[in-house]
Amino acid sequence: MDDDSYKKQKEAFVSNFNGTTATEIAVVTSINTLSVLLNHIGGAWLCSASSSVSWKFLVDFVTLILPVELAVTLLSSRVDVLFIAVMCTCIGILIISDKTRKTKAPQKISLKTFLARPLAGKRPFISNFRAYVNVCTAIGILAVDFTIFPRRFAKAETYGMGIMDVGVGSFVVANAIVSPEARGKYSQYRGAWSSVASIIKSVKSSAPLLILGGIRTLAVKSTAYQEHVTEYGVHWNFFFTLAVVKILSTAVLCLTSPSISGYIAVFLGVSYQYLLSYQNLGEFIIMGVDGTGSREGLLNANREGIVSCWGYLAIYMAGVKLGQFLFEPRSTVRAWVVVLIQLVALSIAFWGLLGLSQYYIEPVSRRMANLSYVIWMMVFNTQQLIMHLAVQLIWIFLKDFNLILSSSEKPVIDSQIPATYDLLDAVNRNGLLYFLLANVMTGIVNVSMATIYATPIVGFTVISTYMFSLSLVVYILHVFNVSSKIW
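The structure assignment produced for this chain is given below.
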């Protein structure tokens, strides 16, 4: 089979899908948070201060990465079995921990004392959420090239929801919630020169993304690598979108204020949808300037990537507002329980808005990043944050009530918020390098083998090896206290 024929088959293999439901995506991706709980409980039982680095890494990989990989590959049609297995493992460890306790259990605290417990400083649930955005994307960009990855999880062509469709939107939210504007560490822009200086600084900080985007375009164009043109366009890609959104957000906030980022998000989302629905912008994105789907001209060739930045900018602004809420000062467990309840209420509201938007306006479209997509991204990412926060609070409860013992039979007690485990720390520490390596390794796998003809076992083995290697690289860098600075 010649390269051109296989390229066409590969492009057909990842194109023209309608996705699945928002509910299934929410359920499948919730394995992320259960994996964190499994890692906390299993790590406390299996690892101690004297455990080797290699053993800790292996425990982290098996508990944090493998369940997520299984949920979108071998067990994608039986996620319920995976959920039960993870939960039974967690419960089993807790029971064994209690039954094998050789010493008398320490005095347990009251619920009132627990709720009044100091809980300030770092927010591990946010770090875990951000790490999993990277991890899930890394799994998805390679797994989608194998038959073991369900086609309903692949990116929807124009309208619809696939697990792959949450990638870029989640990256935008993950960056927004920890931005200086969200954490209150920005300098209020004053005067024209100050605004220009801020925008120039944003351009410089976005330069690595622009460079990586250019390199990726050149690499794809110079090889027989498959292209999904309707995803971003002929030359545009994920890196360009992130860079442009960052630069535009700086410019918008120079002209306005981070304090009204929520209102800006609503204005951008609604005004963009108006242009899509009533000013033929949606028709332009789908059919092109001449109505035939041609790709003549730079704007026309990259219309999806360029125009959708408007929608992603709305997502970013909404993410900034969400981050401002999450970084408000709070000092007790009770305060964070209240936050959890507020986030659940917010998520319910977003679910309602999503239903109304899809029914009365138009279905979700990642290709256009329309209003329904903007709302869906807030639904999805708010829900992920809820579950990560819930796991953090559950872990603190288990520790404070002495329900879990370490392998050395000493109660797991820590007065601080539990830190993220090493592998997730490693991913966050070198996030851009992690994603860059994921793209490079995905390319290497695709040019080295005919992925669409691989059996499920071969596919799973390749994906597992790829994730193990990727995790090991950033883990080693983390162990040696190395932070990559591409710029």
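Interim note for the steering committee: The two ends are 42 Å apart (CA to CA). Residues 142 and 394 are 33 Å apart (CA to CA).
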